Amino acid sequence: GTAALIWNEIICEKVTNFIMNQSKEQRILDFVLQNAVRGDPCSVVDTIDKYCSQKEWAMNVGDEKGKILDKTVEEANPSVALELGTYCGYSAVRISRLLKAGARLLTVEFNPQFAAIAKQMIEFAGVQDKVKVLEGPSEEIIPQLKKKYEVDTLDFVFLDHWKERYTPDTILLQECNLLRKGSVLLADNIIFPGAPDFLNYVRKSPHFQCTNYPSHLEYMQVEDAMEKAVFLG
Q1: Regarding beta strands 208-216 and 131-135, do their DSSP bridges make them parallel or antiparallel, or are they unpaired?
Q2: What is the C-alpha to C-alpha distance for residues 216 and 193, in angstroms, rounded to an integer?
Q3: 49 in active site
Q4: What's the longest Cα–Cα distance across the chain?
Q5: Does 189 participate in catalysis according to the annotation?
Q6: 150 belongs to an annotated ligand binding site
Q7: Out of 163, 169, 224, 227, which one is annotated catalytic?
Q8: Quick check: is 224 catalytic?
Q9: In CATH, which superfamily holds the domain spanning 61-231?
Q10: Which residue is catalytic, options 49, 83, 155, 160?
Q11: Radius of gyration (Cα) for the chain, nearest Å?
Q12: Which residues are recorded as binding Mg(2+) (predicted)?
């Protein structure tokens, strides 16, 4: 798995970026703009999956784990959801297409180039009224959610950013009183590349009830899993 990622992410991508003079993320967006149906979030998700499974690997949650994400969102039925790690907007589009009327998703992205791509992806999918992209480090944005973004508590949180931030950001969500009894956290990539500190924290905490969902790394046959942690108060 590591060797395949190094080949895809470092060698192939750098060569292609140099030859085409554009980023992989821009190529994904261009493929969507040319091949997906505007205003159809399902078409956008399917088109990204097609590109990333057939042309260039990318770190979206992907189609297999995406079904686990869908099921968890549907069960949580959130009014206010938070995503940590927007990347190209794949999971933001995927989540938002399942949100009930009046619900909203706040998605946090540290990389300004990724945020710019994601905003275009979200607009093309027609879900911009449900999704707000927040640019900056998660540790700075989380404490601002209540006052600046009028969040009382979060019903659903998707963790898919830097793995070493999973635990401190979960603690920060608790310290900022952003979780209520029944709030659902779903963490991606807990096996590959792995988030052992997070697993240790939520599984040993009396405040969380955990469920593990074995799966595979996006667009690969590499073992991975997602972890659901329901906040018990």
Answers
A1: unpaired
A2: 11
A3: no
A4: 53
A5: yes
A6: no
A7: 163
A8: no
A9: Vaccinia Virus protein VP39 (3.40.50.150)
A10: 160
A11: 17
A12: 160, 188-189
In whole angstroms, what is the distance from residue 168 CA to residue 151 CA? Answer: 20
Distance (Å, whole) CA 210 – CA 204: 10
The answer to whether the annotation marks 169 as part of a ligand binding site is no
> pTM, whole model, 2 decimals?
0.91
Catalytic residue check, 123: no
Q: Is 45 annotated as a binding residue?
A: no
Sign for the CA dihedral angle at 32, 69, 92, 16 comes to negative
Place of tokens 């697993």: 199
- Catalytic residue list contains 212: no
Q: For residue 224, say whether it is annotated as part of any ligand binding site.
A: no
List the strands of the sheet with 131-135, edge to edge.
Answer: 131-135, 104-109, 80-84, 154-159, 179-187, 223-231, 208-216
Residue 133 has pLDDT above 90, yes or no: yes
Residue ranges per domain, the chain?
A: 61-231
Q: Where are the alpha helices (DSSP H) in 97-195?
A: 112-125, 138-141, 145-148, 166-175
